[in-house]
Amino acid sequence: MTTRRLYLARHGAADAFGELTDIGRRQAGLLGERLAGVPVDAVWHSPLPRAVASAHELARRLPNVPVTEAAELVDHVPYVPGPAETPPSWAGFFDGYDDTEAASGHRLAEALIARFAKVPDPTTQGTRPDTHEVLVTHAYPIAWLVRHALDAPPSRWLGLNSANTALTVIEYRDGLPPTIVMFNDMSHLPPDLRWTGFPAGIRP
Question: What stretches of the chain show up as alpha helix (H) in DSSP?
């Protein structure tokens, strides 16, 4: 049976300009230490600087693993819900998103699914029966991949937030629905580095 495991991680904590902070580097390094025990085949990252820096920081703990940019992992709104689908807490968030922008974001979200949310073609040269790939991205693409794995309605990506460098694992196998192995796991981080990326009022 061919199996693909995606290790999804939001980038480390970043400043107001989108650059990785010292805290973000520490978080990424600790995630790399955790993943050092996994036979990682590839690290993919968003084109944005905070994700690029996070990917290279964690990859320092993964010798000889290729680190490559994937445009589909960029930060984007994957689906703009209609009024009836929008929870009251999200009211106003999508003001200003015109139809063109919404369609562009959804096309990118579908490209993300098409590229990563499937078992690799076993006939492709070099494909192994068991692959492990790290995707360093942003909260919204992670939410979209989780929503897809659960076969939930498109609007259910809303509210599936991820902390900086928290780990989400999804497993894809031939002939079976995807499995959420874990979501937003921060056990590799000490308490003072957890929950960054969440509003202060909802941190445990």
Answer: 22-35, 49-59, 99-116, 139-149
Would you tell me how many other CB atoms lie within 10 Å of the CB of residue 106? 17
Cβ count near 89 (within 10 Å): 9
Q: Distance between CA 93 and CA 91 in Å, rounded? A: 6
Place of tokens 């939930």: 152
Alpha carbon 64 to its chain centroid, in Å, reads 22
Residue 46 and residue 65: Cα distance in Å, rounded?
A: 17
Taking the CA atoms of 190, 191, 195 and 199 in sequence, report the sign of the dihedral they define: negative
pLDDT digits (tens, 9 = 90+) for 27-45: 999 999 999 999 999 999 9
- How far, in Å, CA of 109 to CA of 181, rounded? 22
* CA torsion through residues 190, 192, 195, 196, sign: negative
123: pLDDT confidence band, cut at 50, 70 and 90? low
pLDDT in tens, 189-202: 999 999 999 987 77
Residue 48's φ and ψ, nearest 5 degrees, are -75, 145
The pTM assigned to this predicted structure is 0.95
Task: Output the DSSP codes for 154-180.
Answer: GGGGTT----BT-EEEEEEETTS--EE
